[in-house]
Write a structure and sequence with these properties.
This protein is mainly alpha-helical and 307 residues long. It has 12 helices and 2 strands, in the order αααααααβααβααα.
């Protein structure tokens, strides 16, 4: 197992919570036919062929990000991710707000604007202040909002092809080009944030060293100074945003075309697939999560079709 049981359980729990939130947001916008705010209504496209457009947009975004990293445009990248974070969280919080208020008057005229009062400060602390709790909390809300934009333009065949394409890319980017590792390192070191779940934790020896230093140095400044000198190794447990959002999209599409039960089966199978990866993975090694998730999602699809 790559991470200890506690950290693995936290990652799995956050993944599952995000998937459930995603199904709620999809139910609100897609199943209940509520309009997406912030002018995010998708264009009229053929769901059977839209996967090509999505793959092209995905490749374009990766290329643009790569170019921006080369010219060291960190400020522009932060503003880009800040805008995406505000809108994506706004879509999710807007769905919860209108649902809880039980059809308020003129909901899209007022509530969608009021939700920005919540999302803008959260996005600011996530992108510009590097608060760990805010970061992981906002991750729970970002991907359901993004998924709600893509589901209307995808079909069942489209998501099957998309999952396969993204899995092949993930294998290449992690095991061959090392692009994913470099991109994650760039985000953490240069941008000071990460697009995905991010949990730093200390191993057993590191925890003992920290405990010893805390007992020896009661003064906060002395403690911080000696902690820096000690160069204590901190482990990182991360799960990329793509590994979170594509299972939401897959479950959402089956919710749209086949109903709630098949979508819940896909959510459960994706969660078990991720758990299998965490158990299989070894410390110090990097693994592409999407192939494992895709196989699990395909199995979930087959089970849903049989039932």
């Amino acid at each position: 197992m790559k991470h200890n049981t506690k950290i693995t359980a936290i990652l799995i729990a956050m993944f599952l919570i995000t998937q459930i939130i995603g199904l709620f947001v999809i139910h609100f916008y897609e199943i209940s036919s509520n309009e997406l705010p912030y002018w995010m209504e998708p264009p009229e496209v053929n769901p059977q062929t839209s996967v090509i457009s999505i793959l092209f947009a995905f490749a374009l975004a990766i290329t643009l990000f790569f170019i921006l990293t080369k010219i060291k445009a960190e400020k522009f990248i932060r503003l880009w991710f800040f805008a995406v974070t505000v809108i994506a969280m706004g879509l999710t919080i807007n769905a919860f707000a209108i649902f809880l208020l039980k059809n308020p008057p003129n909901p899209y005229e007022y509530i969608s604007i009021l939700t920005l009062i919540v999302t803008i400060p959260l996005a600011y602390f996530k992108i510009f202040r590097r608060n760990l709790l805010v970061h992981n909390f906002t991750e729970l809300l970002i991907y359901p909002g993004i998924a709600a934009v893509f589901i209307p333009i995808l079909s069942v065949l489209g998501i099957i092809i998309l999952l396969l394409a993204i899995s092949l890319y993930d294998i290449w980017a992690v095991w061959h080009s090392k692009f994913m590792q470099n991109m994650a390192k760039y985000q953490i070191d240069k941008l000071k944030f990460f697009t995905g779940f991010f949990i730093p934790y200390a191993g057993k020896e590191a925890r003992q060293k920290i405990k010893f230093l805390r007992e020896k140095y009661k003064n906060k400044r002395d403690l911080e100074r000696h902690l820096k000198k000690a160069k204590i190794k901190v482990n990182l447990a991360i799960l990329g945003g793509g590994d979170i959002i594509f299972p939401i999209i897959a479950a959402g599409i089956f919710y749209k075309y086949s109903g709630l039960i098949p979508s819940l089966i896909i959510t459960a199978s994706a969660t078990l697939g991720l758990l299998f990866l965490f158990i299989l993975a070894r410390k110090g090694k990097f693994y592409p999560a999407m192939p494992f998730l895709t196989i699990a999602i395909y199995l979930g699809m087959i089970i849903g079709w049989i039932l």
